[in-house]
């Protein structure tokens, strides 16, 4: 059976993306090289940030094409996270709303990757 090590997000500026994810998830990303960083996201998955103009092999793909789906166990924690992100100035492409799978919102990182949080 396979295991998933990390989700790789192509970014324009590793330092800017590290700052965003450190603020959003209250963590300390690790800079592994000037164009490559990682952060522990869940107990078994890391998010890897790779600077798009330094990919080997190169790729025409740029940021913004990924959505991370993040479940939150209860509504109180969900609301607290939304309020904290709003106070930190994190941009939202969708405010809190009810849907068929519960309440959710969508935040975006500096490269336009979507962070869908739901409860």
TrEMBL record:
Query: Which segments constitute the VOC domain?
Result: 3-119
| SUPFAM superfamilies membership | Glyoxalase/Bleomycin resistance protein/Dihydroxybiphenyl dioxygenase
**Pfam families, alphabetically?**
Glyoxalase
Gene3D superfamilies registered for this protein in UniProt: 2,3-Dihydroxybiphenyl 1,2-Dioxygenase, domain 1 (3.10.180.10)
Q: What is this protein called?
A: Glyoxalase
Source species of the chain: Vibrio superstes NBRC 103154
Q: What is the lineage of its organism?
A: Bacteria, Pseudomonadati, Pseudomonadota, Gammaproteobacteria, Vibrionales
